[in-house]
Amino acid sequence: MKNTLIKNTTLSIRCINCLHAADINTTVELTAHIEKFGISDFVKFRHFGSKTFDELKKFVEENKLMSKLCLCK
User: Fold this and answer.
1) What is the distance of C-alpha 19 from the center of its chain?
2) What pTM was computed for the model?
3) Which residues, in sequence order, are bridge partners of residue 2?
4) Per-residue CA distances from 46 to 3, 21, 39, 49, 52 (Å)
5) What b-and-e string marks burial along 29-52, b requiring 16 or more CB atoms within 10 Å of the CB?
6) pLDDT tens for residues 48-68?
7) In three state form, how does the secondary structure of 29-51 look?
8) What is the dihedral of CA 41, 60, 12, 23, to 10 degrees?
């Protein structure tokens, strides 16, 4: 996936809003955040519950934004 605005993806409004609150606006920024902190870092954000986390993890996997190893952090 090329550098796409998060708001133009298939993610839910809740997930998009949570990412925007974390100052993540593009898929490249999302990838960089996951590489630096791991995908599990998102659960510390307000309103980022288990369903939103599962949705983001699925989105990352389906769009091959990260390797499987990075998803385990």
Assistant:
1) 7
2) 0.84
3) none
4) 25, 9, 15, 8, 11
5) bbbebbeeeebeebeeeeebeeeb
6) 999 999 999 999 999 988 765
7) HHHHHHHHHCHHHHHHCCCCCHH
8) 50
